Amino acid sequence: xxxxxxxxxxxxxxxxxxxxxxxxxxxxxxxxxxxxxxxxxxxxxxxxxxxxxxxxxxxxxxxxxxxxxxxxxxxxxxxxxxxxxxxxxxxxxxxxxxxxxxxxxxxxxxxxxxxxxxxxxxxxxxxxxxxxxxxxxxxxxxxxxxxxx
Length: 149
Known about the structure:
The chain has helices spanning 3-29, 114-133, and strands spanning 37-40, 54-57, 61-67, 72-78, 82-89, 94-100, 107-112. By secondary structure, the chain is α+β, with helices and mostly antiparallel strands. The protein has a domain at 31-133: PH-domain like, CATH 2.30.29. A hairpin with a 4-residue loop joins strand 5 and strand 6. It is elongated and about 80 Å long.
């Protein structure tokens, strides 16, 4: 092999590695779930440049999902255990803090759009209202049906 062929081979290998990294970053940035409202933070915000954090709000739970190079970090809170939702609005982005009634560390999400942050709060409040207004639902009896004996 000549020097020119070796340099071409090295360039091809480096291009393939770069394409692989771009593919991984793209794939991990896609919405991680279907069947609910997924809110993805902006890549332009702090801590979200490569793998933006995502929040899934469903009728039964709130899931904070952060992709990593290997694996992921997920924090799930049942909708009945959400104590409060706090929005910290900045010039461009908003931070969302979802605190639990059990005192466990809150879900902290940085870099969401202002509309997304307000929508997250509205959905959680809506689903909590539906949950606690359901027939037979009594606060403090999460997951346990109520019966009169």
